[in-house]
Amino acid sequence: MSDQKRFHATNPFASPEVVEVDRQTFPNVPSGRVMWSCLVIGSVLNLLTSISYYTNPDIYLICKVMWSVPNFLYGIVYGLGLALLTHAVVHRRLSTLAPGHWRLIVFLSILGDEVVPFVSLVLSTVLYLVFPVVTKETRVWRCHAWVMAVACSCDMFGKGLAMVLEGIQANGIRSLLGKYELLYRVMITINWGLIVLNVVAVILILLSIRSDRKANIPRDSCHYAGLILIVLVPWLHLAVFQIIIMLAAYE
């Protein structure tokens, strides 16, 4: 009998819920060959999606160099997600993926936007709804996934609404100009809601890590990489983007 089940069997005041978390003897991490191969593939795919930026003669060299840092990290994240997904599918271990693994795999969906707009948000929403079902994780981690699914859905709706507003403003559609202000307020409300949802998601991550440590649930390095990089890389991207805009303003 596991420690958690024994605790619930001997403690009459314990919650009736039995938290089932897969405690593997060996971490669910791909082999070195698979990992390095996927890191190379992820970096190449990322480079192909941004090659037009680096070959643009109108962009200063300093901007290209600065952008190389977050761009390199994007390739690493794609590679890690691809390696974990490949390992899980080949060895039929989708049910043993840790929450950090989910986030790395979900991040792969961003590449889909290069083919079809909004596909990344659709896939992200679906995956964040599926992973809590196919894996055995604690309630806090499941709540985190559900919050992320709602955030992705809101983001998708907000971006679609922004495109509609841009079309109204650019084309001057008189029949819709009266509704422009209302739609704009809805978009602003969604954006504020996204901020709140992201803050809640971060809080849930911290609570989940604390819960894992209390329960002595083992987590591998890829799990923590998924928790950290998925937050760090987009923020670094945004920071570099703002610096590049400032440099362009002083041109």
TrEMBL record:
<keyword id="KW-1133">Transmembrane helix</keyword>
<feature type="transmembrane region" description="Helical">
    <location>
        <begin position="227"/>
        <end position="250"/>
    </location>
</feature>
<protein>
    <submittedName>
        <fullName>Uncharacterized protein</fullName>
    </submittedName>
</protein>
<keyword id="KW-0472">Membrane</keyword>
<feature type="transmembrane region" description="Helical">
    <location>
        <begin position="34"/>
        <end position="55"/>
    </location>
</feature>
<feature type="transmembrane region" description="Helical">
    <location>
        <begin position="143"/>
        <end position="162"/>
    </location>
</feature>
<feature type="transmembrane region" description="Helical">
    <location>
        <begin position="102"/>
        <end position="131"/>
    </location>
</feature>
<feature type="transmembrane region" description="Helical">
    <location>
        <begin position="182"/>
        <end position="207"/>
    </location>
</feature>
<keyword id="KW-0812">Transmembrane</keyword>
<feature type="transmembrane region" description="Helical">
    <location>
        <begin position="67"/>
        <end position="90"/>
    </location>
</feature>
